[in-house]
Amino acid sequence: MKSRVVLIQILVLQLLVVVCVSQNYDFFYFVQQWPGSYCDTSNGCCYPTTTGKPATNFSIHGLWPNYNDASYPSNCDSNYPFDPSQISDLVSSLQISWPSLSCPSSDDTSFWSHEWDKHGTCSESVLNEHGYFAAALNLKGQVNLLQILKSTGIQPDGGFYNVNSITQAIAGAVGYTPGIDCNKDTSGNSQLYQIYLCVDTSGANFIECPILPSTKCSSSIEFPSF
Q1: Cα–Cα distance between 101 and 133 in angstroms, integer?
Q2: What is the pLDDT of residues 48-61, one digit of tens each?
C-alpha cells in the first residue's frame, strides 16, 4: 500500500511539472515589420543572399511568448537548438514571409535560428520547431496587413498618417486591437515599423491583447515606400 501511495505521489508531481511547463506563457505576440522602415534608418539594411530584395509587403519578425504583466520568457531550452532539417519543407515559404534584413547579408537561417532559440523554445511544450514556424506562416496567411491598410487609403508612399487611423483600420478588419511600433528614419521622422497582434497559447487564434506593447509613435507617422 505504501509503495502504491508513493507511486501516485510521483505521478501527481510529474503531471504538475507538465502543466507548469505547458503554461509557461500567457499568450503570443505575432509581430510583423515593414521592410521600408527597417531599411530607412541610420543602420540601413541588407537583403538575403539567396533571394535578394524581399517583396513589398509586411514580413514576420517573430512569434513571441509573453506574460500578462508584459514580461516574457527567453532562451528557455539550450538542449534543443535550432535545427534547419526540421523545417526543410517550409524554407521557400519562410524566405518569402520571414526574410532577414540585417547586415551583413545572410541566407535567413541565422535570423530563424535566433527567433527559435530565444522565443520558440519557450513554447516548445505546445509547438515543436516545425510547428512553431508553421504556426507563424499560418497566422500571416490569415491577415494581409498591407491590403487592409491600402483598402482604407493608407499607402506606403512616404506620406504621413494618423496612428489612430492605422490602428482602427487593422482592428476593423481583424477584430482585435493591434499594437503599433515605430522607429525613426534618417531625418528623424517617426515611421510605421511593426504591428503586433496577439495570439492564444495554441499559436492558432488571434485574441484581444491582454496588454499592448509600449509605443514610440508620434500621433502622425510616416509610411515609407520600399
Answers
A1: 18
A2: 999 999 999 999 99
Active site residue 61: yes
Q: Are 208 and 144 in contact (CB under 8 A)?
A: no
CA distance 143 to 181: 18
Grid coordinates representing 159? 506620406
What is the H or E stretch that residue 222 is in? strand 220-223
Q: What is the DSSP string of 60-117?
A: EEEEEEE-TTS----S--TTS---GGGGGGGHHHHHHHS----SS---SHHHHHHHHH
pTM: 0.89
Asked if 210 and 26 count as a contact pair (C-beta separation under 8 A), the reply is yes
Q: In this structure, which amino acid lies at residue 74?
A: S
CA nearest 210: which of 7, 25, 19, 2? Answer: 25
Look-up: residue for cell 538575403? 48
129 catalytically annotated: no
Residue of 61, 124, 129, 222 with catalytic role? 61
Annotated catalytic residue 114: no
180-213 pLDDT, tens per residue?
999 999 999 999 999 999 999 999 999 999 999 9
Please identify which of the residues 115, 124, 129, 222 carries the catalytic annotation: 115
pLDDT score of 87? 98
Angle of CA points 183, 187, 192, to nearest 5° = 30
Q: Give pLDDT tens digits for 7-19.
A: 444 443 444 344 3
**Quick one: what percent of the chain has pLDDT higher than 70?**
90
The pLDDT, as a whole number, for residue 1 is 52
